[in-house]
Amino acid sequence: FWDPRRGRYVTYLRYGPPNTRLISMTESEDFVNWSPKITLLRPEAMDQPWQTELYQMEAMPYGDYYFGFITTYHGETIQPIPEENQSWADKSDVQLTYSRDGRVWYRVGKNGALSTDELAADRDWKAFSRQSTFLPWGEHGKDWDWGALYVLQAPMVYNDEIRIYYVGRTNRHHSKYHDDADTKSGIGLATLRRDGFVSVDAKDKGSLTTKALLFIGDQIEVNADADGGSILVEALDADGNVIEGFSAQDCEPLTSDSVRHVVQWNGNSDCHLIQARTIKLRFRLNKAKLYSFTPRIRHKHYV
Question: Other C-beta atoms within 10 Å of 293: how many?
Answer without folding.
Answer: 18
